[in-house]
Amino acid sequence: MTTWTTAHIPDQTGRTAVITGANTGLGFETAKALAAKGAHVVIAVRDTGKGKQAAAQMPGDVTVQELDLTSLASIREAAEALRTGNDKIDLLINNAGVMTTPKGTTKDGFELQFGTNHLGHFALTGLLLDAILDVPGSRIVTVSSNGHKMGGAIHFDDLQWERSYSRMGAYTQSKLANLLFTYELQRRLAPRGKTIAVAAHPGTSSTELARNVPTVLQRAFQVVSPLIAQSPAGGALPSLRAATDPGVLGGQYYGPDGIGQQKGAPVVVASSDQSYDIGLQRRLWAVSEELTGVTFAV
């Protein structure tokens, strides 16, 4: 099979793509590639000033929507604006995220990484779903991480890490949650037959996401990154393939094909055994609805 690149992205004219966290890194490269293929791209970002600067560097039709994933109020406002401003949404790419942050909470009191990476995108997806559901060929792509395999577990007895806190533990929990959410969402979407849910991960990519990693680890990464990491443009390829390849199936997971899935061409990969646990998927879904107050029309 020919190695998949952005040259394989079909014409996106007439399609609307909403991408969270697209002012830098993977999201920026994803948005730029879709805009270059003719899509109307909306980059949903917390800092609209930076968003406008990013949009100015992209070709085609790119607009900016304010969105703070740490605030359910902001998510609701953004979803309303996106529904009002677009007659349909063909692609929702849940890309934004934080990694290994110091202990903190969102504006609604959720642990920062779980609240941003999972609950924020869960709420946004649910609130936008009526603009996506009946659009032929529509997709919801959620960006996870191969780090979900690094001891990731859903700590239902302490979801907000109030008793103790591990930067990496909280991160891997949030990335496992991304996959559990995608697989349960796909199961709910399947009977309607028009929209699919897909997941992707970038492998190891040199982006600002790792800015909260301890300094000693950052220095070590700088030494080995030429060997194991790929550029943001390379890291965006799994998301782009998941979003646009006509052969993609609902519930698939895309990542690099290299050693340890750290870099390489985007292909279908397997996630952890735990991520396929239907009981966990359904339990997390129910808890997420309760915490966010957002229910889905599927």
Automatic annotation (TrEMBL):
Give the superkingdom in one word.
Answer: Bacteria
InterPro entries, per the entry:
NAD(P)-bd_dom_sf, SDR_fam
Keywords of the record, alphabetical order, are:
Oxidoreductase
One GO MF term attached to the UniProt entry: oxidoreductase activity
Q: Oxidoreductase among the record's keywords?
A: yes
- Signal peptide interval: none
Q: Which family does it belong to?
A: Belongs to the short-chain dehydrogenases/reductases (SDR) family.
Please give the PANTHER family that the UniProt record associates with this protein: PHOSPHATIDYLINOSITOL-GLYCAN BIOSYNTHESIS CLASS F PROTEIN, PHOSPHATIDYLINOSITOL-GLYCAN BIOSYNTHESIS CLASS F PROTEIN-RELATED
Q: Which NCBIfam families match?
A: PRK06197.1 (NF004846)
- Tell me the protein's name: Short-chain dehydrogenase
Q: Which organism is it from?
A: Mycobacterium adipatum
